[in-house]
Amino acid sequence: MAGARSQVNKPHKTRFASKASRHSHKIDKVRSGKPAGSHRAAVKGARAARLQHSKAIRDQKRAALLKEKRSSNGSSSAPRVIVLCGLSSSANVGPLAEDLLIFAAGGDEKLTSNTVASPAYKLRTTVLQAPYGDLTSCMELAKVADLLAFVVSANSLYNSDSGNPIDEFGSQCLSVLRAVGLPSTAVFIRDLPSDTKSKQELKKAAVSFLSPELPEDCRFYAAETKDDLHMFMRLFKEQHLSSPHWRNQRPYVMSEEACIKPGDSMGLCTLLVSGYLRAHNLSVNQLVHVSGAGDFQLGQIDILKDPCPVSERKNSDVMDSDDNQIQIIDTFVPDPLNQEPLLVENIPDPLAGEQTWPTEAEMEEAYESNKQRKVVKRKLPRGTSEYQAAWIVDDTDDEGDDSQNDNPDGAGMVIDEKDHSEHDSDSSDIDAVSHFTEKFDQETIGGSEMGDDENLTKEQIEEDIKRIKESNADDEEFPDEVETPLDVPARKRFAKYRGLKSFRTSSWDPKESLPPEYARIFAFDKFTRTQKHVLAKRAELDEESSKDCARIGSYVMLHVKNVPTDVASKLCHPSRRLPVVVSGLLEHESKISVLHFSIKKHDSYEAPIRSKEPLIFNVGFRQFTARPLFSSDNINCNKHKMERFLHHGRFSIASVYAPISFPPVPLIVLKNIDGQQPVIAAVGTLKSVDPDQIILKKIVLTGYPQRVSKLKAMVRYMFHHPEDVRWFKPVELWTKHGKRGRIKETVGTHGFDEMHIQQQRPAARYRVHELVQTSF
């Protein structure tokens, strides 16, 4: 029983309650306008909203997947492209391609095209052969393949010395195709024995050899009998094909036929390319890129009747109509107001840098600020701008007064005590500076360019190649180190360079000392935002049914106008084995800018690759020749150090002037060799498009200590003239183990000049901290 002394517990705890809940009983719920269960209803409504949002996302993904499946497997979809690539010389691709076409066509009929329709499988197929030994052709065909089928011979498993079905070319081809981006892959195994047991053993051996080199979803097929081909076609029809992401961003047409139509202008013509439109819709107002020719405008797009329908009824209609002549269903003509111009370079405005006349209030404010400011007259070296003057380090040590007395001439990077007017008439030194610096720039880029092979003997060429290899080895072991010349003063040879206390934290203006020609390239305020906007416009073009837009999967004829006649003749030559590929360009992709690629030297290429050496760049569907400038990839720094060579085993940045592309885009770098096919030199991917990225050329001057005390040392062979020592006096010195010091004074007046160094601790070698120069 509860008595008077029984414990009475609190009905609730208010320690962790909110202030609103403690005073909720004081509020009239009728006057507050909130129902009693409003919080519970809000929670329930939020949960329902989340469930509805998740269901909407699932429905969108399901609809997109269904749309993709219908567009790839439907009767209105483009034919599926199978590219057969042999991995060894024993793999005979020709008979297999013929067997596939005949079997897909449904009989032993005469083949007139690489594209056939199969009513039994309700599928259209295009079979192409990649020529063995031609790396460039294999790479170009892999770019348009829906299924990349590698062909191996079972005889190579026991006839070859190594027992490997992949030879040297096959291994190199696989590495290149992986860098480009592999679509769906398959392997055809030929020359299998009729014995079932031996057949299964050889197939397992081929799978064990090839599985590590190919993707996990790669399928292996025997390709000997009709039953094997029937199994492949049945599975191929239901297979979900994947393709590289960079190819899915742009519409493209692989030519079934290509011909030339004479143009109005001399030396120009109209290239007519017929084929199926793939990946996206194509507007007649878009610019297009013809592989191997360049960027052009479209003069017209004709929608033609499908020459290879799947159903028999459509096939009979075509046979009955006008003896299989070309039937134009619709025609799109570009709108001059909406057509994208073929703009490659920017036209700079010479008056763009002019400023408006200041107002009276601004002039008065500037006058007052100048009066309040303490005027300190600084006398600088000859040819020093105001921006460069900010980099000159004043000597704030205790020995500052002594150093100024030891430098009566005021030469170099210290403050010049003489009036600038005394040096205006002396222009010979300035000319000498420009002469020596230009000569040094050519030497530090990676050695002098090799002379013309026609004017050099065999011994001279071998000596030049040996010198380049030695320079590559020295640069890899001692990066950025250069020798101070004996016959030229260092203050003239290195006049364009400046000393940085920290390469990472020191500021540098990206707009400083730019040449006037740099205004001809294009730049973006925010490249990622521009890319997002361009891809959104392309998505809108796919969704809406425009009057000037060809639909995906339709058979079209593109009229590419103003193509050079000699280039078009090579593309349409009967001996050409590759199809002509016309790809649609996104907005801004015809304009020139500075592209930065993340690049790595290929393992099979052993020769040195120098900066500014001509190389062949394959970027997506594009191919062009460029002279890349290599630099280090600094993640936590906005400045990148130029590299003279592309070294093995690490990634570098290759910067080139090239048409704009939106990443991700793969990069394959080829090198021309006289009398041989181009060989692969490097692989990579597009990293960014940024003309304001700073690339600095860094050099290190070294000297050797002769006498070392506790806090001072005497260093020789860094400079050879007393004036050079005084010129570099403001620049900090450092050792291999991180000790730092300052130049105190010069010792000697001629010959190999010496200098005293004030330091914390003696070390074995001294270097000028960092001398850098902007590279264009």
From TrEMBL:
Point to the regions of Basic and acidic residues compositional bias: 415-426
Gene Ontology MF annotations: GTP binding; GTPase activity; U3 snoRNA binding
- According to the UniProt entry, which residue ranges have a biased composition of type Basic residues? 10-28
Residues covered by region (Disordered): 1-56, 389-429
Q: Keyword Thylakoid: yes or no? A: no
The biological process GO terms on file are: endonucleolytic cleavage of tricistronic rRNA transcript (SSU-rRNA, 5.8S rRNA, LSU-rRNA); maturation of SSU-rRNA from tricistronic rRNA transcript (SSU-rRNA, 5.8S rRNA, LSU-rRNA)
The UniProt entry's sequence similarity note says: Belongs to the TRAFAC class translation factor GTPase superfamily. Bms1-like GTPase family. TSR1 subfamily.
Name recorded for this polypeptide: Bms1-type G domain-containing protein
Which species is the source of this protein? Aegilops tauschii subsp. strangulata (Goatgrass)
